[in-house]
Amino acid sequence: MVEEIVENADMNGSGQIDYTEYLVAAIQQEKIMTKDMITKAFNAFDIDGDGHITKDEWEKVFGGIKMSTTEWTMFLEEMDLNKDGKVSREEFFTFLERHYSKSPL
To answer: What is the three-class DSSP state of 52?
Structure first.
């Protein structure tokens, strides 16, 4: 297992991981962990597990948050890129990447 990790990170084939190779591997791992965390967040909102988040699911997860119909509509429209009335996993990732990430996920 350790040999495999070194082999994958050792881009120049020296048999050792230099500082640059370490940084590249760390950045890649951070992106993987970020995607995993976002996937977990998406799954928490996707109550029925169908791969989409509906307005009803948002409202259930957010609990007692009071938002007007107009506010909900604006919120969902910003995420629902294909305008099908629900937010897919890809739309969720795109929204978060566009608004909250300094680098692509």
So the answer is: strand
Could you tell me the pTM of the whole model?
A: 0.61
Does domain 2-100 bear CATH number 3.40.30.10? Answer: no
List the domain boundaries for the chain: 2-100
Q: How far apart are alpha carbons 26 and 38 in whole angstroms?
A: 18
Tell which residue, 30, 26, 31, 22, has the closest CA to residue 104.
31
Instruction: Give the percent of the chain with pLDDT over 90.
Output: 21
Contact 17, 6 (CB under 8 A): yes
Task: Specify the higher pLDDT residue, 68 or 16.
Answer: 68
User: Which residues 6+ apart lie within 8 Å of 23 measured at CB?
Assistant: none
Structure tokens at 90: 């890809």
What 3-state class would DSSP assign to 50? coil
User: Which one-letter amino acid corresponds to residue 30?
Assistant: E
